[in-house]
């Protein structure tokens, strides 16, 4: 008498299925004649024979095989519907030596999870995907699958699948093999013993690819669902031969054996290297701490490319160097693409509340549109510095102090038009006194890498000083 | 500590790496994209893992897989992306997996715009996805807190096996401020429940499906009991001048900074106003608010939404004092002066 034993890749007793043990702990939950039991068994045998039980992370999908973890004696993760290839990506990027198996049905992989499978395949993730295609949704009660055949009757196609309504069946092995990522793509069938043996071989091949770190393997397995198809098990197998296999060609689509997938990850930085990388080293400045009686709210505005954002960061850095509190808030996102930009800087001796500058104490207007936009918002008694190289009109207000300075022209004379923002900022510092010009000079070399640029900026500051003295 | 002028969105990446983050899976979205940019640079250079996913749905499931395999893992997004992640966040709760999610809030609904709102409050603080679950929600109000909260988020997530959401906003993310960084690197420990793909963890299973009612009921009871412990242990807030206040402003994130300025301005006018700023939005500091509800004449909740936190304040004070609601939408951020006017109107009414 032949004694059939369970493969060692299975648990001895399925106690997650039947915690009380007994006969129920010795059988699967699958229906008679279902292909899942066969595929499970082939995988379990392979895991045992290849000695990879301890290394295996088995992903259960949503569908009839949601409970694959009842049976597989491996590390088990159950996934959301269709998401197993993304879950597997996360797992295999964390445990690079793990054998990651994604076991999915046709609703899971070819319906709700198309994005996940396509992109995991395209990245060539180190995982083996076993796609059980039985052309119907089993667990939810026999509804249309993306792989249901034309004319096939299901709970949601009671009059048969119609091309005009549901489209034609999707061929996942063909789709996946259009991508360059996978190393191995094959479609097999469980319709007869020969097909089962070929499936056994394909499963082992896919798992060997994992052991060898070759990358992404995809095995589509045509599988019977007698209950869903409303057929006897034997009839179901001949239906596969007559109907399923003519639509889904059983063949090997790709087999690349000379590829090794590298992780591409750089060596892991130790604590010292990480701290060195992440924590900026700034020497303390010897500058005297400034005191501001009230909050300074500065709006720096101009065309994109005039350096208004960087003028803002320089101002905020200069303030910090003098022991002040500072915030810097940019215009950003889609707004930046309109060609104008502005930075809001708030300086204070106290912690800064709102970083929003709706009523500036100072407006540094690098161009006409900026003056038009913000002139009226400046507080009475505030300051407006106008780039008179570009702004031809005068300020309408008579309750603010105004400096007209040709900052673009001054920068051009030094041969560095892009430095107009520095001239503008320097004028503000000369006028306001806090932070002082020395604070700006002290932060320049820390923030600007090229020493010749620092020299140019210092020259611009000198020119600004001469201009300011003459005003 | 020497401080560096840095954007909140950049600071948070550094805080996370110093806090032991090993993996980042994300998808770009304004105004959170700089976090992905920073992570792509720093996670990669430091030999950690950065991967841009094909969608937020995939990103959250990569997080599920990496967390299941023992990683300290994070992502960053904004409202529309976090909406897509809710399915995965529910599964994370169901399998009790630790993860860190940064939500740099923008204005909604739908595509909305890229300016600040605080309308992800309910989605993040009430669980968000299907099922009765919670996330730990931290509300940073500065670049420093972006750093500090990211630094401690992974410890919190691991300890409680929960998702920690750092609920920021477009201004806290985009703003540059002086920030000091921790000088010690944290590391995650081996987890006895994770699936490492090794002999020791072979028996482990991470799943959220429990078919029998009794089993799932017991699991939910266990989750709820855990949430009660979290509430007792980690609730956190800041109070400014609440000791003698007649009027209490309650605000978080960017709005709390405007409220802090408003408090200063109102005090200058002789109106005794204080500020209560939750640092954890879940758990919500209800008990302390209930106490304050007894001592103040009125409370005003300022937020960039339709009163989502005000609902929680109402629940906390249980009618002991009136709760005014000051709400703005659409990415509009009020000035302190506007809030001052609203408070004066409501208080002197």
From TrEMBL, chain A:
Which residues, if any, are the signal sequence?
Answer: none
Tell me which residues make up the Thiamine pyrophosphate enzyme TPP-binding domain.
Answer: 70-221
Q: Which residues form the Pyruvate/ketoisovalerate oxidoreductase catalytic domain?
A: 304-464
Q: Which UniProt keywords apply?
A: Oxidoreductase
One GO biological process term is: small molecule metabolic process
Q: Which domain of life is it from?
A: Bacteria
One Pfam entry for this protein is TPP_enzyme_C
Question: What InterPro entries has UniProt attached to this entry?
Answer: 2-oxoacid:Fd_oxidoreductase (IPR051457), Pyrv/ketoisovalerate_OxRed_cat (IPR019752), Pyrv_flavodox_OxRed_cen (IPR002869), THDP-binding (IPR029061), TPP_enzyme_TPP-bd (IPR011766)
- Name of the protein in question: 2-oxoacid:acceptor oxidoreductase family protein
Native source species: Candidatus Thalassospirochaeta sargassi
Taxonomic classification: Bacteria, Pseudomonadati, Spirochaetota, Spirochaetia, Spirochaetales
From TrEMBL, chain B:
* Transmembrane spans: none
**Cross-referenced PANTHER family, in alphabetical order?**
SUBUNIT OF PYRUVATE:FLAVODOXIN OXIDOREDUCTASE, SUBUNIT OF PYRUVATE:FLAVODOXIN OXIDOREDUCTASE-RELATED
| Family matches, as CDD domains | TPP_PYR_PFOR_IOR-alpha_like
Question: Pyruvate flavodoxin/ferredoxin oxidoreductase pyrimidine binding domain location, by residue?
Answer: 15-233
- Residue ranges annotated for the Pyruvate:ferredoxin oxidoreductase core domain, each copy included: 246-338
Q: What is this protein called?
A: 3-methyl-2-oxobutanoate dehydrogenase subunit VorB
InterPro entries reported in the protein's UniProt record: 2-oxoacid_oxidoreductase (IPR052368), PFOR_II (IPR033412), Pyrv_Fd/Flavodoxin_OxRdtase_N (IPR002880), THDP-binding (IPR029061), Transketo_C/PFOR_II (IPR009014)
Q: Which SUPFAM superfamilies match?
A: Thiamin diphosphate-binding fold (THDP-binding), TK C-terminal domain-like
Task: Please name the GO terms that the record assigns under molecular function.
Answer: oxidoreductase activity
Q: Which UniProt keywords apply?
A: Oxidoreductase
